[in-house]
Amino acid sequence: MFCSNPRQFKVLNEANAGVGDEVQIILQDGVLLRSSMLIYALPLVLLIIGGIAGSYWSNDTANRDGLASIGSLLGLFAGFVLAKWIARRHPVMAIARPLGTVAPD
Q1: 105 residues of the chain, pLDDT tens digit each
Q2: First-to-final CA distance of the chain
Q3: Helix/strand/coil (H/E/C) assignment for every residue in 40-84
Q4: Residues 6+ positions from 56 with CB-CB distance below 8 Å
Q5: DSSP string, 2-14
Q6: Contact yes or no for 9/17 (Cβ under 8 A)
Q7: CB atoms near residue 76 (< 10 Å)
């Protein structure tokens, strides 16, 4: 949306389209939503859970904010690691793979 350069994607060239040909990329329903939930929502949820856990485990109110910050960072890091693990283990959930390319007539 805010990109001034054309976007580039790697797809299978089943239509034998050449350079400069316009093609239409078709994605399965829900692939973009699942991919965005995996890469954005999972780390965010674990960030919040880590912050709450760090705050909960603090015995001293003076250290509560520091432990909540550390817990948040650990949760965020764990979310990214978990998202990467899920993406490698279940590539269909993580990667928007095109169904095919269609060259216009």
Answers
A1: 566 777 666 777 777 878 888 877 777 777 778 888 888 999 999 999 999 999 998 888 888 999 999 999 999 999 999 998 888 887 655 444 544 444 454
A2: 27
A3: HHHHHHHHHHHHHHHHHCCCCCCCHHHHHHHHHHHHHHHHHHHHH
A4: none
A5: --SSPP------T
A6: no
A7: 17
User: How far apart are the C-alpha atoms of 36 and 40, rounded to whole Å?
Assistant: 6
Q: Give me 68's structure tokens.
A: 């909540």
Output the pTM of the full model.
Answer: 0.65
Residue whose pair of structure tokens reads 């001034």 in the numeric block: 4
